Amino acid sequence: MLVVQESEKVGAHIASEAATVSVDNSVVNNGNLAKQDDVASQLTDAWKTICSGLRRDLGAQIFGQWIKPIKLARFDADNGDLQLLLPSEFAANWVRERYAERLTLAWKAHCSDVRSISFAAKAGAARIAQVKQVSDIPPLHGSTAPNGGKFQPDLDPRMTFDEFIAGPSNVLAQNAAQRMAAAEKPLFNPLYLQSSTGQGKTHLIHAIGHAYQAECPAARVIYMSAERFMIEFVSAMRRNEAMEFKAALREADLLMIDDIQFIVGKNSTQEEFLHTVDSLISRGKRVVVAADRPPQALDGVDQRLLSRLSMGLVADIQSADLELRRDILNHRLSSMPHQQVSEDVVEFLARTISRNLRELEGGLNKLLAYAQLTGRPITKELAEEQLSDILSACRRRITIDEIQRTVCEYYRLDRNEMSSKRRARAVARPRQVAMYLAKVMTPRSYPEIGRKFGGRDHSTVIHAVKLVEQLRGEDTEMDNDVRMLLRQLES
């Protein structure tokens, strides 16, 4: 077996930076001793040359940390696979993911007998599974993936900017995310995305990762949750590999941490995260974090860290309004033309499932799956039947009194005008809008609504609902008024 021992002598020659080789010929397959000695000598010379080039290209610090500890472990003459040995599983996986392609090309260029390389941890360290030949490993687009690929971005292919539907509630965050993902230097750093659960901040983080990798294929991208950051950091400390963990993070070109609110109260983790953010920003690297609250509301977080997180742009994502929810459903259905879902079902789902977008899409998916499995047509009745649990949790009991009060405040009318007999347009039109809203936002019947508006006949309410629907399609100002009132009532 080929075994490499790190030289203890420090000299000017690159041999002091590389490894010296001794040979156990019994492990070299298919060949006499002379041939085995010749192969071992070739490997030794090739490794010294490769180390010289890597030291020059990577710099002394990176070379010393990641390449210098490598030892030549085993060479299989049958398939041309050379196994490289590293001091820990962490280091073995990190070097494999970060430098495998470069090392493979270097070995093929300097030693024709080597056709592929594999990596392992030294005896006593947790062993890793035998990896595929490097020539068979697909490229990682330059993404950083230390710790056995645990830091590999693992981005959801569905969460791209093309699949992100923008509206007034999230357009600032979307534009900021696109700027952060562009090749040119961002105007702000870090980017802090804030929203309640299920409003799209995680989607934007994944979209940034996809777009930035497309713009800069060689970039090193790391994405993880704050909880995972803490677990990985503590695990690295227990394995005495904290330095490798820190180095891996600080080599990122783009670091994205989700659910940063879970980092609260962890002093050592906060300290490390603070230093990581400082290091990246000072070198012009990009940092994106997301949380369910603004930085100032993160209780138990070091003030220095709060200051760093607030120094860039804090982009707030508000709850999606009715139109945005409707657009999201229609966009989802546009990719499934074979699914027949009527407009009234879309409208029903958009109006009823309003707490967050994750529930909205989950409700639609459940409805589509049930219809496919049973063959039943998708109707409003089916939606009410199958989504009763979601609908009951999402419904907010909006009353006609609340609608009247909101409309009167919006149009600056006295509340009594909702029941008065006055027919002046300045009074009648807001009253008709309130009737329309009462019909679309409450389960009340036309006669019940009429009674709440001064005892009016149900036909008057029907006329008001049809008129407002017509005016929304013809009059932009009327449509904007109704949208604003819907947003206020749903918030």
From TrEMBL:
InterPro entries, per the entry: AAA+_ATPase, Chromosome_initiator_DnaA, Chromosome_initiator_DnaA-like, Chromosome_initiator_DnaA_CS, DnaA_C, DnaA_dom, DnaA_N_dom, DnaA_N_sf
Residue ranges of the region described as Domain IV, binds dsDNA: 372-491
Ranges where the record places region Domain I, interacts with DnaA modulators: 1-121
UniProt entry tagged with the keyword Cytoplasm: yes
Entry's localization field: Cytoplasm
Keyword ATP-binding: yes
Entry keyword set: ATP-binding, Cytoplasm, DNA replication, DNA-binding, Lipid-binding, Nucleotide-binding
PROSITE patterns the record matches: DNAA (PS01008)
Domain Chromosomal replication initiator DnaA C-terminal: residue ranges: 399-468
Function field: Plays an essential role in the initiation and regulation of chromosomal replication. ATP-DnaA binds to the origin of replication (oriC) to initiate formation of the DNA replication initiation complex once per cell cycle. Binds the DnaA box (a 9 base pair repeat at the origin) and separates the double-stranded (ds)DNA. Forms a right-handed helical filament on oriC DNA; dsDNA binds to the exterior of the filament while single-stranded (ss)DNA is stabiized in the filament's interior.
NCBIfam families: DnaA
Protein name listed in UniProt: Chromosomal replication initiator protein DnaA
Naturally occurring in which organism (per UniProt): Parasphingorhabdus litoris
Gene: dnaA
